[in-house]
Amino acid sequence: RFGTEMVGEDIVEVDFSKRPFAIKSDQREVRAKAVIIATGAVARRMGVPNEEKMWNNGMSACAVCDGALPFFKNQPLMVIGGGDTAVEEASYLTKFGSVVYLVHRRDELRASKIMQKRAFDNKKLEIIWDTVFEDAIGENFVTGARVQNVKSKEVKDISVSGIFYAIGHTPNTQMFEHQLDLDATGYIKVKAGTQETSVEGVFAAGDVHDHKYRQAVTAAGTGCAAALEAERWLAEQNV
Ligand SMILES: Cc1cc2nc3c(=O)[nH]c(=O)nc-3n(C[C@H](O)[C@H](O)[C@H](O)COP(=O)(O)OP(=O)(O)OC[C@H]3O[C@@H](n4cnc5c(N)ncnc54)[C@H](O)[C@@H]3O)c2cc1C
Question: What residues does the FAD/NAD(P)-binding domain cover (predicted)?
Answer without folding.
Answer: 7-223
